[in-house]
Amino acid sequence: MALIGAATPATSMTPVTGTAAPVGSPVPESGRTDPDLTALRHIWERQAEAWARGDGNAYAMNYTPDADLVNIKGEHLHSRPVIATQIQRYFNNQLKNTHLLRLEEKVRLISPTMAIIVRKDCVLYGAEKSCRPDTLSLNTSVAVKHLGKWMITSFHNTLVMPQDDQRPPFRISSTS
Predict the structure, then answer these.
(1) What total of structural domains would you count in the chain?
(2) Most buried of 26, 85, 136, 175, CB within 10 angstroms?
(3) What is the pLDDT of residue 163?
(4) Which pLDDT belongs to residue 161?
(5) What does each C-alpha distance from 91 to 15, 60, 76, 128 come to in angstroms?
(6) Can you give the pLDDT at residue 1?
């Protein structure tokens, strides 16, 4: 996909107060509601609704047919059908009776047809109302607009690890 024309980046950061209620309409710096930012936020809402129902097919419909998804386990799922199948396996097992809670979201329009979305959220099990440290994640999505519809073409998710000032962020091993 080629990007044509100059991009006018728009960014909107929405902190969430810690409730499971959907975030309101985004308002960019200009003070006007941006329909693209609103549509991009609706992707998460559709995903969260499908997740809560345990519906892998509906969850995957937010992705392009050739999308890539890297989950917190490092599994690389390529294509909407593979995403639907694997996510359904998780919904039937480890993620049964769970739902998502969005804590923060930053949407950046890179061009009229491409956006980057960075979110902090967590998985809530059963009747949980707040995040546990072991379910907090940070994820990045690349969304593309095709024929007037925004979809995720790439998604990467990682668990947020507690910061330990005594431990380096990674260990370099030496062979000496």
Answers:
(1) 1
(2) 26
(3) 72
(4) 85
(5) 27, 12, 17, 17
(6) 30
